[in-house]
Amino acid sequence: KAGVTQTPRYLIKTRGQQVTLSCSPISGHRSVSWYQQTPGQGLQFLFEYFSETQRNKGNFPGRFSGRQFSNSRSEMNVSTLELGDSALYLCASSLSGTGGSDTQYFGPGTRLTVL
Amino acid sequence: GENVEQHPSTLSVQEGDSAVIKCTYSDSASNYFPWYKQELGKRPQLIIDIRSNVGEKKDQRIAVTLNKTAKHFSLHITETQPEDSAVYFCAASRGTLTFGKGTMLLVSP
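^ Those are the sequences you sent over. The predicted structure of the assembly is below.
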């Protein structure tokens, strides 16, 4: 099976802009979670989608949003970008509906740089 | 919410030595504890996981132990090799994964 894919792999934006990142899960996986990875804060949970519904949400401002489509592909959007949003954004997919208690497989990430 | 502490932040060993990374968690309801390895510039890869109904799990040179009473779990790598050099993350979950800050393991030949 193909692994989790993310597009684009690299992105450079300026403050105030918005950005949309895409994640395609492993075929058959219905849960997609998003994480922000920075050197200072490590891996932080953003949100999880299952069957097109946001099931869990981390402690991030409302500028961070996401959605999931009927084919389980997911997108996340960050509006009004700030310098501190520069990070590696990782998505992870899992098979079933047990949320974080199910094995999660990570994508390669999207490296976002905000200038 | 859940809080996961991971120690040490860096660990240097000689090839062939053992390496131990320890994590503690705060939420007694957490029931799933995976460990991920992340090589430089690559995605995190699951190396082993354990659930709360199991005290120990082993896979070749890698083992994980869980002490639910003390709320801590550990990763043990025996006979380390240079290719084991990476950042290792522990995590705890009761629905969403909360990660430790990571341990950079350096194995010198």
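Chain B has no helices and eleven strands. Chain B has a mean pLDDT of 95.

Shout if you want it in another format.
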